[in-house]
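Repro case for the chain-ordering regression, as requested:
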Amino acid sequence: MRPEATLAPAPGPMTPRPYRVVSRRDDLIDTVTLELAPVGDACPAPMAGQFNMLWAFGVGEAPISVAGFDDGVLIHTIRRVGAVTAALCASVDGDQIGLRGPFGTGWDLPRATGGDVLVVAGGLGLAPVRPIITDLLANRADFGRAVLLVGARTPDALLYRDELEGWRGRLDLDVEVTVDAASPAWRGDVGVVTRLIERAPVDPANTTAFVCGPEVMMRFAAQAVLDRGVPATHVVLSLERNMHCAIGHCGHCQLGPMFVCKDGPVVGWTDVEALLRIRER
Amino acid sequence: MVQVLGAGGLDEIVRALRAQGRTVVGPVVRDGVITHDVIDSAADLPRGWTEEQDAGRYQLAPTGTDEIFAFSSPSTSWKRYLYPERTLLIRARRRRDVVEIHEPEPEAPPMAFLGVRSCDLAALDVLDRVFLDPDATDPTYAARRGDVFIVAVACSFPGNTCFCSSMDTGPTPRSGFDLAIRELHDGASHDLLVEAGSTRGAALLAEVESRAASDTDVARAGDSHDRAVAGMGRRLRSDDIQRAALDPDHPRWDDVAQRCLACANCTMVCPTCFCSATEDSTDLTGTESERWRVWDSCFTLDFTHLHGGSVRSSTRSRYRQWLLHKLVTWHDQFDASGCVGCGRCITWCPVGIDLTEEVAALARSDESVPREGAAP
Amino acid sequence: MKSISDLLGSHAFFEGLAPDAIDLISGCGQNVHFEPDASIISENDPADVFYVLRTGRAAIEIATPRQGQLTIETVGPGEVLGVSWLLPPYRWTFDVRAVEPTSAIALDAACLRGKCDDDPAFGYEMYKRFAGLVRDRLQATRLQLVDLYGNDAS
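-- result from build under test --
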């Protein structure tokens, strides 16, 4: 048995680096936002749209989109849907997890320079698009109208509510929020998010649309965006698939010829429309 | 330059490789099949044996001669020696809230593969494109692959399920080997032709007894190659493959889905299938943990599991994924076909599904191709 | 002060309708205004008004035993309220409550139905618009049923 190496400066592609939970916030009944700082060497800085593989000791890894990156601290919003995410969501300040990345294609906000930006987020999809908004606001003069449309099941399922309200108050960003159903205490919109797309105040011919959420929602939202007249080449989505390696070796994340981990998760609508419409019956 | 090995030359090669400190792996007869295992000398090779293969059928049969390599593709491929069924990825320890992560050095004992068919040689090139990608290199595969000494053997007796000629991967090895052997046996004489494919192959060849091949030897080799090409058991046409990919609603998909058991045998025996999963475990105290990579198959129900269900939950969708990945999208991903024409998936399918037959049927707009093979 | 005709003529729902048809409708209408939380429509009441919303926001609700009033859709400027006035049994099937100060044109349903009966070409124009409205509402409702944000694997 050869002697083992302790963590070298450049670990292999499947080896996580230890990260410490700096803070933890309960967003929703099943969703937690963790702020993570490297214990030793940091992973490279992520681009908006990329994801990291977060490793819960002894349980496993899950691909989680980067929701923010601030002064070396990574922000990840995690929904509890299985054993790994449950373990990650149970983390408290000071806990250490493993992290490797960043992986995948980014939103590439600069592709929208000079035009209007339409961001449509559904449910947990608000987390991966959050860096689009923060990058856009940091470079506001590069873009025309900026519109953020957010859909959720109920007001209780809305993420980042404080931040949304802050963005809503800005004069240089249009924020519209709708839910599928609500009690009378909710004074906002109720209805499906595609309706918000119909009346979004953008110039369709000069707009780039970034869409993120469950796949069904993205399909209908993308269609609504196209119906407005946004060119198909300017519609961008973020896909999600089962991933074990994130480096194109395990095979799980394939969609047609694409490895969602490295040819995605951000993809152009024209590249995936035909693939998404195949019914896997 | 082609040489002819002296009597006992093959044994000399094995001994020379072992003297280099290499574990020599070659074909052996075991448990009623020809499989791969560590060999000590040429005597361990399956002299006098051949295989009768068909869809869902494998039978060893004696040849009645002393030919060593009269079979075609053994039950296993070489992939498990470069890409093991289980690989330790990391070992970790947690004490209070501090986690230490250790990446083990890859286990890469020096090896030699003796008896690599050209289809399996092509499969190594296919796997290289997956695991030696500069952006994502697998440490274990890279460590083992760089050093392994390859002795290829040309196929004289392609099996009934073979179609390497269709995939342009055989039956004669062209490159990627250190030494390549062709066995010539016609009752009167029994010779092993050998040529070097690398500097170290030439150096090893220089250590063993051999003479230069004559023009007759070379002509006989050519005839053997031609006979092998003519003797292919199956055929797969590339324009059929293109047509098979066109219609996701072709009724043949439903037909094969009714026969396919999603047992994953095909992916296990395929020399190029590379899908894997990761498994984490801890000891009873929860302080020590290991993360392993294990072979996986796109045929499993959970392969595409995504909170709430699987993207490909039907056998139909999973068979389609496997077939079109192997033959079509592999080209988009790796600039080569994923199929090398070895025929193992046909032989080892318990219900005898033959992908050459499925492709031919899918390429037709009516189901005019009658189904042959050992379907129950 | 704009006339009912002017207000209807510039409303999205009646886009493309000929001016004399607009005038025909406006005879059935009057301006109405609702303060926040005022009830606009009550479930099971006779559906005798067709509301054309100009400003504000109204919530379409269903009364449920455990969750109380549940808002299933909100409508705003440029949209209309109510289809039940058009077809028998002419009874409202939902509650509607103003969420913000809401101004609308209330068109008398019997008056409007009568004009559709008297002038089939006009009736056809009205029905075309309602077919589109019902189609959009059905599509939206179906998407809401699918639970777009749920734990679906698609």
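Ordering looks correct now. Chain A touches chain C through 31 residues (CB under 8 Å).
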